[in-house]
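Quick start: what a row looks like.
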Amino acid sequence: MKTINIALGLLLLLIFVGCGGTSSTSTNSGIKEEKIDYKSKFINTKSCNQIIDKSFFVICYDYKLKAAKSVAYHLDGDLMAEKIDKRPSFYREPTLEKRYQILTTDYTNSGYDRGHLAPDAAFDWSDVSLKSVYTLANIIPQAPQVNKHMWSKVETLARNKAVELGDLDVVNVVEYSKYHKSIGKNKMAVSKNFYKILYNDNKGYKACFKYSNRLNTSSRNDTVEKHRVDCNTINY
């Protein structure tokens, strides 16, 4: 009877794995964590009206918000040392219908910066890749102090981690309030918070960070670690 029970248990385990059971990976702390496909979790047709594939990254775009809800991309550590000094101009996203497009003038006198989700510093290894991140579908209104002095630090961390680990997956998630502020003639939504998820399943690395998009936020004494959060708390 004991032999039968063991065989039955092994059979059930094989069925579970074959049906897509949750896998796990060891983190740097030695604790096993569930592997989550963050790209699929946040970029799918249930979460957004249109998925925009820019070859180097993908955007989950919402028509009502006229803004990205998330952006996912992969960083190759070998490319992070490359640098192109000349920056291209922002442009309308051609795959969007005009009624859902945003213009650079929507930011004029709004008090917000044009903030990249897929950052230019991570894609300036070729003219084509760099131009891709200047689509306005990849840009959201960011509080100036957050954009210039806080969010930029975690972007630097991501590039450094890509070099250290060889490569890195990144998903940026944007959270909007039910009654959000809008800017410009085209009424682009302004986010409440935004998050950066960094992970490399093969190396057991995962880290998540949260930034509030408040105007007049002080960046004094700011560090990346002050923004670290539990990845399981991140949702739309």
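That is the whole record. The longest strand covers residues 67-76. DSSP finds four helices and 13 strands in the chain.
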